[in-house]
């Protein structure tokens, strides 16, 4: 049975109501409210949960903010992860948002849904475009992982479970399907050859031949976070010490997914590398991604090619590997995709090419 006591100041004026719930087998629960009806409602809820055997101690959830939880996860768990750059950026965004100010106990599906809907309509400071649904999915998914870890490993139970699992995720955005068509490759390489940056053409050829990510080919300093000014960790790019022209391989000791892989090199890729000057600093390509990006954009403009990002070259290369007859496991070993689902998003086979295979 709950006890409701008035709280009075030194003049005997009631300033609040204290609800106390005592039940055998459970720790005593106490909470103070301004209104008596709120105290009574809270006590009834606690008693009902205890009677049904579903009561969970809310004290830690009420004392821990979402920002505090994210901070602890960043300090204790992220350093153990192979890939930290992306999660760190998302954690900073979530911490600075309205969700960061809430206690875990106050983090409800309704508040998460409001956050989701607001973010979907937000404009990126970096691109000036509306955020993609995939970006918002990543944010909610990371928060969900953090909360699940807190429940399972840190003993912070939530009365109604993980609220992130109780809302509808934004629809997954469709995979990009831009590929080089007609004589676009010829026009692109011609425009790259005319560029003032001598590294542009060999970099583009190498990207098309290997399906490697930009950060695996080129040194990159990354873009500073627009909200914090913090830059992600620099990627070193491909090093001559990891290239074996005789075996026709390029070893990548550290990749985006945290695992090393060795990429086989086509004859065209080998010829491209053999023609390059050697840099004293050990880099295969003596230019950063930031230093070549605008050159690539201008080359596309000169070639009258629209909608083809540098990352689309990885899609092009991945699709070509399948067109050469490699099976999914072989392609994944080259591209570094860990799941067939992700590999599928990077593969865009032309119907006319498939028709030729059918005879």
UniProtKB/TrEMBL annotation:
Q: What GO terms describe the biological role, i.e. biological process, of this protein? A: DNA integration; DNA recombination
Task: Please name the Gene3D superfamilies in this protein's record.
Answer: 1.10.150.130, Intergrase catalytic core (1.10.443.10)
Per its UniProt record, what InterPro entries does this chain match? DNA_brk_join_enz, Integrase-like_cat_sf, Integrase_catalytic, Integrase_recombinase_N, Tyrosine_recombinase_XerCD
Q: Which residues form the signal peptide?
A: none
**Record keywords, A-Z:** DNA integration, DNA recombination, DNA-binding
Q: Which SUPFAM superfamilies match?
A: DNA breaking-rejoining enzymes
One Pfam entry for this protein is: Phage_integrase
Which part of the chain is the Tyr recombinase domain? 175-359
Q: What is this protein called?
A: Site-specific integrase
GO MF annotations in UniProt: DNA binding
Going by the entry's taxonomy, the superkingdom of the source organism is recorded as: Bacteria
Q: Which PROSITE patterns does the entry link to?
A: TYR_RECOMBINASE
> Does the keyword Oxidoreductase belong to this entry?
no
């Amino acid at each position: 049975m709950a006890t409701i006591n008035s709280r009075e100041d030194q003049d005997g004026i009631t300033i609040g109501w204290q609800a106390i719930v005592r039940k055998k087998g459970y720790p005593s629960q106490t909470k103070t409210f301004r209104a008596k009806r709120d105290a009574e409602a809270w006590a009834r809820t606690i008693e009902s949960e205890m009677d049904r055997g579903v009561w969970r101690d809310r004290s830690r959830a009420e004392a821990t903010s979402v920002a505090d939880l994210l901070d602890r996860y960043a300090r204790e768990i992220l350093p153990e992860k192979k890939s930290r750059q992306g999660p760190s950026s998302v954690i900073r965004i979530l911490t600075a948002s309205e969700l960061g100010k809430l206690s875990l106990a106050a983090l409800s599906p309704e508040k998460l849904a409001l956050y989701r809907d607001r973010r979907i309509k937000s404009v990126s400071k970096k691109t000036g475009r509306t955020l993609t649904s995939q970006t918002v999915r990543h944010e909610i998914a990371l928060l969900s992982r953090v909360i699940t870890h807190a429940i399972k490993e840190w003993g912070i139970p939530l009365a109604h479970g993980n609220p992130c699992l109780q809302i509808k995720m934004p629809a997954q955005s469709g995979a990009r399907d831009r590929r080089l068509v007609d004589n676009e490759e010829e026009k692109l390489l011609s425009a790259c050859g005319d560029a003032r940056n001598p590294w542009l053409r060999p970099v583009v050829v190498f990207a098309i031949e290997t399906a490697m990510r930009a950060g695996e080919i080129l040194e990159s300093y990354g873009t500073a976070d627009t909200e914090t000014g913090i830059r992600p960790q620099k990627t070193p790019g491909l090093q001559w010490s990891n290239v074996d022209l005789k075996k026709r391989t390029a070893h990548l000791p550290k990749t985006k997914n945290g695992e090393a892989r060795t990429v086989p090199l086509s004859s065209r890729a080998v010829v491209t590398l053999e023609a390059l000057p050697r840099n004293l600093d050990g880099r295969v390509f003596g230019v950063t991604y930031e230093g070549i990006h605008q050159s690539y954009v201008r080359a596309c403009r000169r070639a009258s090619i629209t909608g083809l990002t540098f990352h689309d070259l990885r899609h092009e290369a991945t699709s070509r590997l399948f067109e050469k007859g490699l099976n999914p496991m072989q392609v994944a070993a080259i591209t570094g995709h860990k799941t067939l689902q992700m590999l599928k998003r990077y593969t865009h086979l032309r119907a006319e090419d498939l028709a030729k295979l059918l005879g």
